[in-house]
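> run fold Helix-turn-helix transcriptional regulator
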Amino acid sequence: MELSPEQCRAARGLLDWTQERLAVRAGVSRSTVRDFERHRHVLHRGTETLLVRTLQDAGVMLLPPDDHGPGVRIR
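> ok
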């Protein structure tokens, strides 16, 4: 699953998480989350996996792109 910056922001919104909270739970730096969400850099595959797993474990479903783009849903 390729995580988009928009999905990351939306998932945090559904969970009511700050960038800091996601970063701590995923074991990455806050600047990594911030810069990714601002389209400043692409995530390394391992970092992306950590973020996706953390969001999914918290109850977020990341939906693949369709005609309307990628999405998120809370379980």
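The chain has one domain: 5-74.
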